[in-house]
Amino acid sequence: MSTLGLLPGRSRVAAGVVTAVLLTALTGSTGGLTTARPYDLGCPAWTERHRSIDATRAQDRERAFLCLVRDAGGPMFPPGEPDQALLGRGRALCAQPGWRRADEWLRSGDFTINLHGLDSALVFLCPDAVGGAALRPSDELLAADEADYVAASNAACRDPWPRTRARAQGTAAYFTSEGGGYHLADDRDPANEDGVEHDYDGLLAAGETGVAVRTIGGRGLCVTVKAFGEAPPLRLKGWQEVAEVGVTSRSGRLAVPVLRPGGEEGAGRALPNLAIDGPGHYRVRVYARADADSAGMLPAEWHLIVVHPGRSRKEVVHR
User: Fold this and answer.
1) What is the 3-state secondary structure (H, E, C) of the chain?
2) Could you tell me if 311 and 246 are in contact, meaning their C-beta atoms sit under 8 angstroms apart?
3) How would you list the strands of the sheet with 182-185, edge to edge?
4) What is the domain partition of the chain in residue ranges?
5) Disulfide engineering: 242 pairs with which of 46, 135, 137, 319, CB 3.0-4.6 Å?
6) Hey, which residues does 226 pair with through a beta bridge?
7) What is the Cα gyration radius of the chain?
């Protein structure tokens, strides 16, 4: 088991998604590469005494990296693999944004090393990419990492009803804070300034002018919103949970919050106002499903929010 430590600094949005999961490790051709080096008697300088990059000569930094990943010996850096193959794996990770390195680690299922341990080894190959000796990326690097992560998450989300056109619609990744959950609300009602109060007894919890939605997995998700002039067909197939409630829009707004710069929660891009008939009463139907076996950083839960005019405030659980 590696002696390397815990989680390094990550952007707020990406950090909320990192969890231990299983899947494939990095692969690559090793044809024609040098044979693996036998145990290096100098390795304890890095694996046990934790010699820093500043105290390591430039010509010894590849050696330090190899010592650290061989000490871990997990699927990301398999035992017995040639030096050049391991260095190639390391340099490929160096070239990626921080969230993509985290994604590789999550998908590898490598419990012999963790993210802090991974960056503690990579610092000997690419100190600028992991935040230098202190493993503290600059604000600029974190901002670029977060922007790349949000863009990739948005790109991974698709409309689950692509052939059903609505008067207003949109799809985006949604990033939740600790504990999951989000809300759709009249965002001009002062009562919703801090979100919608909720006491979940199911998928939805309705307030006067907002609806709180429980997430299944508590991770990032894809949200599609659609507003119709009347109730569309129910279409339950493929969904784990489906419920609907009534809500009032006093201002003529019903919207999902957007992620703000430096924030932790919200949609990865602006979604439209769903109160298509202005102030009044609406029905909100939410469909939800999740992939419990999914690995990696990208969304693994999908929600569809359907809104249409309707006076009833009755909660109906369809599934």
Assistant:
1) CCCCCCCCCCCHHHHCCCCCCCCCCCCCCCCCCCCCCCCCCCCHHHHCCCCCCCCCCHHHHHHHHHHHHHHHCCCCCCCCCCHHHHHHHHHHHHCCCHHHHHHHHHHHCCCCCCHHHHHHHHCCCCHHHHCCCCCCCCHHHHHHHHHHHHHHHHHCCCCCCCCCCCCEEEEEEEECCCCCCEEEECCCCHHHCCCCCCCCCCCEEECCCEEEECCCCCCCEEEEEEECCCCCCCCCCCCCEEEEEEEEECCCCCECCECCCCCCCEECCCCCCCCCCCCEEEEEEEEEEECCCCCCCCCCEEEEEEEEECCCCCCEECC
2) yes
3) 182-185, 210-213, 204-206
4) 12-151, 159-317
5) 319
6) 169, 306
7) 24
Q: What is the mean pLDDT of each run of 10 residues along the chain (319 residues)?
A: 39 53 32 48 92 96 95 87 94 95 90 89 96 92 94 98 97 90 89 63 87 87 98 97 96 95 92 98 97 89 98 95
81 CA to centre of own chain: 31
Distances (CA, A) of 234 to 160, 161, 164, 238, 244: 13, 12, 12, 12, 11
- Residue 218: left (phi > 0), alpha (psi -120 to 50), or beta? left
CATH topology of domain 159-317: Substrate Binding Domain Of DNAk; Chain A, domain 1 (2.60.34)
> Any residues with CB less than 8 A from the CB of 27 and at least 6 apart, and which?
none
